């Protein structure tokens, strides 16, 4: 195959080493610039299930895979993770990672599994006060809802967005390890930096376990992640 060419729909590739064996790669994507041959030229296979998808979906998939391949190369692996039936990416042996995309930016974390056990990454736009209010009972547990008391409407909306994103990161980190779907009432933020499992997912991931998350402010939103080193 000829050298992969970066499609015009992708730009601003950025790479950051977060810790030993843990990288974050991001790029911008523009669905309106996606061409019929963008996948072929990039050397990335479009899954059959996405053949009829709208340009935005195909382009975000391409952007995520492009970033994933860049990150894997930095770990010495030349591969593009496939999409499993559950939609979780299938990371090549010796690696793990997570993908998120929103509003024209794709972000990927890849990790060397000699050091890292679980990785989940998610980005969300800050929810508006109205939307956060509508979604709060779905996303937050009763104890998390109580913790909103005393916050201004904007602070509440931002807290709800952050909990939402952290829980999605948790899901992306643990689903590949447990094969179990779990939902927003199955984990709880009990302090500013961690989530506690309210449900046992497997013998290794039990109710009561506390998992640290990190986050950064993003253009009009939040990027959160969970990266757990081996015990
Ligand atoms: C799967 C889910 C987390 C994706 O999040 P999203 O905000 O909709 O979309 P994002 O852009 O952030 O992430 C999409 C990427 O997640 C990854 N992903 C999808 N399903 C996944 C799974 N089961 N496990 C791990 N990663 C998964 C994929 O890489 C996908 O991108 P791709 O299809 O281009 O490869 C979300 O749709 C979902 O089902 N949430 C409900 C489960 C949940 O969050 N529970 C909370 C537990 S406390």
UniProtKB/TrEMBL annotation:
Keywords: Enterobactin biosynthesis, Magnesium, Metal-binding, Transferase. Mg(2+) binds at residues 122, 124. CoA binds at residues 57, 65, 100-101, 122, 168, 172. One of its GO terms (biological process) is enterobactin biosynthetic process. It catalyses: apo-[aryl-carrier protein] + CoA = holo-[aryl-carrier protein] + adenosine 3',5'-bisphosphate + H(+); apo-[peptidyl-carrier protein] + CoA = holo-[peptidyl-carrier protein] + adenosine 3',5'-bisphosphate + H(+). Pfam families: 4PPT_N, ACPS. GO terms for molecular function: holo-[acyl-carrier-protein] synthase activity; magnesium ion binding. Pathway: Siderophore biosynthesis; enterobactin biosynthesis. The keyword Chloroplast does not apply. It comes from the Bacteria. Belongs to the P-Pant transferase superfamily. EntD family. Involved in the biosynthesis of the siderophore enterobactin (enterochelin), which is a macrocyclic trimeric lactone of N-(2,3-dihydroxybenzoyl)-serine. The serine trilactone serves as a scaffolding for the three catechol functionalities that provide hexadentate coordination for the tightly ligated iron(2+) atoms. EntB, EntD, EntE, and EntF form a multienzyme complex called enterobactin synthase. This is Enterobactin synthase component D. It comes from Alcanivorax hongdengensis A-11-3.
